[in-house]
Amino acid sequence: MKVEAFIFDIGNVLVTFDQKRIQAALVSGGADEQTLEAVRKLAVPYERGEISGERFLGCWRDFWSPEGGREELTRIWQEIFEPNPPMWDLVEKLHGAYPLYLLSNTNGLHHEYLEREYALFQKFADGVFSYRAKMLKPERGIFELAIRQFGVRPEATVYLDDLTANVEAAEAAGLRAFLYRPDAHAECLAVLRAQGVQCV
After folding, report:
1. CB 3.0–4.6 Å: which of 20, 22, 111, 175 could bond 170 by disulfide?
2. Per residue in 47-86, pLDDT tens?
3. 134 and 172 belong to one structural domain
4. DSSP assigned state of 125
5. Co-location of 101 and 172 in the same domain
6. What CATH number is given to the structural domain containing 107?
């Protein structure tokens, strides 16, 4: 069956990220292990949309507050991403030939940063994000929501993700899902060509 649409994960697909930057910034600012553990525990409910960005930052400040206050905390949390140039090139080639969508476990501050800093994200027609959906991949419901919201036929839609559990859940929901690794981009192109995608 001919490919009709693409859905992309964000982290380690469109951009790489390094959460160790957050830990390094906290430690250099004098944060202790209790603070590091508190931030780790806050991250999951924030990504699931169980707490707001303001509450997330407020709870963080309860444990540790840098001189720059909220702005510094926001900067530390957001500045962990780097572009994945080969994937950006692929998106440029696909854009216009196929509708492109996003499906990501993410939070409000990261989503805001990515859309502000990287014009590439303007090439996507729509997105489903865990903090808004109140669900996390690999929960089946978030894939079903994406299929409904985007109005795609899952059997004709390619989904790319860097985690095996997410790929398996996407397949269970009917999507043509494939595992992506930033260090094996050529394999991704070969898979797409095998699926009949001509523009790559």
Report:
1. 175
2. 999 999 999 888 777 777 666 678 888 998 999 999 999 9
3. yes
4. S
5. yes
6. 3.40.50.1000
